[in-house]
Design a protein that fits this description.
The structure is a homodimer of 321-residue chains.
Chain A (H helix, E strand, L loop, with lengths): L4 E6 L8 H11 L5 E3 L10 E7 L14 E4 L5 H4 L9 E2 L4 H19 L2 H9 L15 E5 L3 H12 L3 E6 L9 E4 L4 H6 L3 E4 L13 H4 L12 E4 L8 H9 L5 E4 L19 E3 L9 H16 L15
Parallel strand pairs in A: 1-2, 1-3, 3-4, 4-5, 6-7, 6-9, 7-8, 9-10, 10-11, 11-12
């Protein structure tokens, strides 16, 4: 065997993300390299140098004694970081243009849905009621984005182009052209106070768990042109206190919410989110990236790594993302 | 009276567009000029030099013998052009940034709703069903825009930024950066054949009446990644053959439609559009512009006209827009 094998550990996902589909994509781009779809009894775990994973079971990666790099097939690595037996090798997360573009689509769509009163207009259609309401201009609305990495900065750019005022908040200081940037705990309240539509794209870490909670919703713009501020969470379910969201929607602290992620996924059928009239719910598909793009990205990184180059988008294990 | 009076003829509209609201806005920006809200028995019609109108009744404008300019408070002048007694003075339509921005919001929102399978996702939510489907990338979808004036070009620009392929069709040749431009009857079919999501922003003229009909829907991309092509009409109701749209939605020639305008408005309660599962319906509010912006625009044009300058956005009565 000339090249170290790549093992695929893929669990869950849509038909587009089936393990067989991943294998055919990796076979196409990993010339001369064995691609193993686990479980597979016909190979020696010591031959595996790389693993490309999607929701691997805890402990599963510890089976490979000669592992050199782990590639996560999505952007969020919180589940992997929780695996205490995770081999101490570089962990790379996906950062491809396709993923960024899809997340921007989701953010722009859901910001516009709340801005343009879609829940009200659909309700009017169901009631066969012709009842246009006054519509505020985009320039009267501030979208506040939590997380100003590749995803947050790209969504901010399109929202700005549409005329929204855009504010951003991140852990460390950042500068994004045309966007009012805030950072750290000290500037969190100032960021929240001007925010009418809050978009959360943060990674899930011990520091950000349940950051979306009642005390923070209460700090959002209380004089919003929308009536009450809106929450959009396309980060991770663990970022949100779900009981707080429901109570805040019901007492008017929040005017609406778009949720793509949940504490438990798939969302249990008895969750009150399903039938809530002010919740726009999607099944964690904000940025389902094309396997073609991701497999090419991984194959390219492996080639560069074997040629002595540096890996890109390596997770900082201290930060957790 | 130093300055010629401005008469307001405003019928219909939302609370934001009430005649009183218009009068207060024009009073604020027309310094030293009488602003008359019709009907008003206390003035001499001969004193009226300017009229700012929204859905005036046929014949209503013929009452002013010294009229110099008519300002239409919206972008579409088809209803005015149908008034055979319309005084033969310059007719100016609104072209303000605010109107353009709002139309772009509408177009981007509705393109994204169909692209991101919103009707399917809302149905899944109502059924409490967690069932993500594969999602095509924006680069696999062509949005075809009919009408490449200020509105069409601006919407095209944002759609391009989101990664869509964008084609445009107009009566006369146009060039828009990054957009495949078609024009005239000869290139109409080539434009339609590549279009997955058709956006209609055409003015209503005798030539464009019922241009949105079955033979043209049948020419749209039959191999669309969306399954079947989608229609978005934010121009005028007179552009669409409504029986054809319904039949094409039911036999699969169209996969969905977003309609903001109708043959009869308000849309009659017995219209099948209201309850159609593949119709996303809005009450002609795609681009309800801020009266503040429009009144400033009209006042500014009058000042320049009285100082000997040219009027902008004057309707070509032969073209009809």
């Amino acid at each position: 065997m000339n090249k170290g094998a790549l093992a695929l550990l893929v669990h869950g996902g849509t038909e587009n993300w089936s393990p067989q589909r991943w294998k055919s994509r990796f076979d196409a781009v990993c010339e001369g390299r064995p691609v193993l779809l686990l479980p597979d009894a016909s190979f020696d775990p010591a031959e595996v140098h790389y693993a490309a994973v999607w929701k691997p079971h805890p402990g599963e990666l510890a089976a490979f004694p000669n592992l050199r790099v782990i590639f996560n097939l999505g952007a969020g690595v919180d589940a992997l970081m929780a695996d205490r037996s995770l081999p101490n090798v570089p962990l790379v997360r996906v950062a491809v243009t396709d993923l960024t573009a899809r997340m921007t689509e989701y953010v722009v769509l859901h910001v516009l849905m709340h801005h343009r009163q879609e829940p009200y207009l659909r309700e009017s259609q169901r009631a066969k009621r012709w009842a246009p309401k006054s519509q505020w201009a985009a320039g009267a609305v501030t979208v506040g984005i939590m997380g100003l990495g590749t995803l947050g900065a790209d969504a901010a750019d399109v929202l700005k182009r549409l005329g929204f005022r855009v504010a951003g908040w991140s852990r460390n200081p950042k500068t994004v052209d045309g966007i009012e940037c805030f950072h750290g705990e000290q500037q969190f309240e100032a960021f929240l106070q001007r925010t009418d539509i809050l978009v959360c794209l943060l990674p899930l870490t011990p520091e950000t768990r349940h950051i979306l909670n009642r005390p923070m919703f209460e700090k959002l713009n209380r004089k919003s042109p929308l009536g009450a501020p809106v929450l959009i969470n396309a980060g991770r379910g663990g970022l949100q206190n779900e009981a707080d969201i429901l109570q805040c929607l019901d007492d008017g602290t929040l005017g609406g919410a778009s949720l793509d992620v949940y504490a438990t996924e798939p969302l249990p059928v008895d969750s009150p989110f399903w039938a809530h009239p002010r919740v726009v719910l999607t099944p964690h598909n904000a940025a389902d990236t094309d396997p073609d793009e991701i497999s090419k990205y991984v194959a390219h990184q492996i080639e560069r790594f074997e040629a002595g180059g540096a890996l890109e988008n390596v997770v900082d294990r201290n930060r957790g993302y």
